[in-house]
Amino acid sequence: MKNLTQILARMGGVNLLPVAVAAVAFVLIGVPSSWVTLTVAGLAMGMMIFLMASGLSLVFGLMDVLNFGHSAFVSLGAFVAASVLTWLAGWLGADSIFLNVMALFLALTAALIVGLAGGWFFETVIIRPVYKDHLRQILITMGALIVAEQLILAVWGGTPMAVPRPQFLEGAIILGDVSIEIYRIFAFLLGLAVYVALYLTLNRTRIGLLIRAGVENREMVEALGFRIDRLFIGVFMLGSALATLGGAMWAGYETLISPSLGAEMMIVVFIVVIIGGLGSIEGTLLGAIMVGLVGNYVGFLMPKMALASNMILMMAILMWRPSGLRPAVK
Amino acid sequence: MTEQNSTGALIVKITVLTIGAALLFAPFLFQDVRSLEVAARICVFVVLVASYDLLIGYTGIVSFAHTMFFGFGAYGAAIALKQMGPGWDAVMVGGLAGMLVSLVVAVAIGLLSLRVKAIFFAMITLAVASVVLVLASQLSDFTGGEDGITYRAPQLFKTATKLAVDEDGKVLRLFGVKLNGKLAAYYFVFATSLALFVLMFRLVGSPLGTVLKAIRENEARAEAIGYRVVSYRTFVFCIAALAASLAGTIYAIWLKYTGPDTMLSFSIMIDILLMVVIGGMGTMWGAVIGAVLMVLAQYYLRDLMGAAAEATSNLPILPELLNPDRWLLWLGIIFILLVYFFPRGIAGTIMQKGIAK
């Protein structure tokens, strides 16, 4: 028994969890082609949720600030990207793949810029005055969420909005009897790229070193003469921008978005962050993939349970590891 | 001279007693259907907000699952009244069932997550509450789904019921008010709400309340003196859940309708938060003031905003922002400003005035 635990730990420990879930699902589903489709869908969904959740987790890890208004950025990103795409509809329909890519690029960039600007505003105006006061932080960010949601409603209206997709991301690849939507592959690759970039920044650069040091012990970093408050703004803006990017990707995935999108995603994002453990990028990725996979498998196997599946997953993991799978904050 | 008997505290207490008196005589003072609706809503929300204040104001726990408990009570009564027909037995069964479910869920959440950081707890309650909300709208065989459940209240509370008749067999009038079932229903709401409020008021004045405040101020020190913080927190979380559940049952009986929007939705949670913060966290008096102001704003501010939007219809943007549907926007801004500048809320700020230094 002890040997087994050690072998498991050497092979990656909790990182094996998604693989185990996928294996169990393979047995339960029994049809390889459905299984592949579901797994790809789960991974793509997980990656998009990772984009939304990573910022929340990072900000909490570094600043000890939990931003309940984070989901406002998700809806904001979705609506900004959708507006840009609608505006550039001519480019999207064009045969030239260059125009297609340009339109998509512009939409995602617009979402990112809005996220950076919004993050800066949010940090300086809303959160700065209430550092280190959790109770007021929760209340203030909640209030900011209400205001932001209402503003989004005022600007874009309450009716659902259709999101056009670029031509080259439409359709599916068919391998044997497995069909895989191209958009899902794109979402997965983009999420993976962001994860790798974040991982390398955090672990291989000087800024990353400072951020990790700040997570460990803020006072010590300050005592060594680093302006950690500037780092805070940077991380907050980055986190918000990731959320808007996630929202923009989600808008393309859903193709029909309504202002309640942020509120719906917020719960999933929270569950992911709780499962993964607050403050760690690896944990968030793990949590996001778990939620994505379990959501898709359960939705296929027992459609009625799909809604509660995230909840049950969270309960089970909290019973097993009260502070999440891979917490960074001790 | 302490905060309890400063001039400011006197003002707050007189205000609250005036509100109480106004609620007591509401059917006679404001003789239209809408006002009675407002008065009943205020009664129920005072209880709900006071029980939430037990958590956020007295113990320093932030929970977003309070409407869930409110909903358990309401749905318990609603389902029982629908299945068993109108009667007091259904009310009892439904109310008790709602309380039982609330208690079990509260104990489970409390033991599982009250030992962790406040922020973690807030997230977990938010997740649980939203799952319950989704379940309530999905299990439509049982809960009526999005449409909710309509049912009949016990015989006594029907508008057609005559409490007292004159010689001609018509409903007797007292100061021009018909003594019918609607009046009985209102006084049922008022009396039960008052009883619950007084109970909670006693609770915070008791030694237990002092322990809770100690936990809020300094958790480590309270633990060091020998109070088991997790037990106390779980206990008060359960008490608040039970009170919210009862408030839900009362409101379900009054409305004769239970649906996700009126009983479970997240906007009710935001209302409660706003009421607690506006009224003042950590005082039961504040709960009353906050609930009254918010409910009045809900019913009457929207009319005012509609008028303002029409008056400014020639200007750009303004009418869009003054649209009655945007009233939450303004409340949100007021909420943020209050948390920044008056973290003690109306009651707390006034009560501080006039304290002899």
Automatic annotation (TrEMBL), chain A:
Chain segments annotated as transmembrane: 7-29, 35-60, 72-91, 97-126, 138-162, 182-202, 231-253, 265-294, 301-320
The keyword Transport belongs to this UniProt entry's keyword annotation: yes
Gene Ontology annotations for the cellular component aspect, listed alphabetically: plasma membrane
Pfam families according to UniProt: BPD_transp_2
One GO MF term: transmembrane transporter activity
Record carries keyword Cell membrane: yes
Cell location: Cell membrane
Signal peptide boundaries: none
Single GO biological process annotation from the record: amino acid transport
Highest taxon listed in the record's lineage: Bacteria
Keywords: Amino-acid transport, Cell membrane, Membrane, Transmembrane, Transmembrane helix, Transport
Protein's membrane topology: Multi-pass membrane protein
PANTHER family reported in the protein's UniProt record: ABC TRANSPORTER ATP-BINDING PROTEIN, BRANCHED-CHAIN AMINO ACID TRANSPORT SYSTEM PERMEASE PROTEIN LIVH
Homology family: Belongs to the binding-protein-dependent transport system permease family. LivHM subfamily.
Protein name per Swiss-Prot or TrEMBL: Branched-chain amino acid ABC transporter permease
Organism: Parasedimentitalea maritima
Automatic annotation (TrEMBL), chain B:
Protein's name in the database: Branched-chain amino acid ABC transporter permease
Source organism: Parasedimentitalea maritima
GO cellular component annotations of the record: plasma membrane
InterPro entries, alphabetized: ABC_transp_permease, LivM-like
Keywords: Cell membrane, Membrane, Transmembrane, Transmembrane helix
Residues that span the membrane, as ranges: 6-26, 38-55, 93-112, 118-136, 183-204, 234-254, 266-296, 327-347
Keyword Transmembrane in record: yes
Location in or out of the cell: Cell membrane
Any one GO molecular-function label of the UniProt entry: branched-chain amino acid transmembrane transporter activity
UniProt membrane topology term: Multi-pass membrane protein
One Pfam family matching this protein: BPD_transp_2
Main location: membrane
PANTHER family the record matches: ABC TRANSPORTER ATP-BINDING PROTEIN (PTHR30482:SF17), HIGH-AFFINITY BRANCHED-CHAIN AMINO ACID TRANSPORT SYSTEM PERMEASE (PTHR30482)
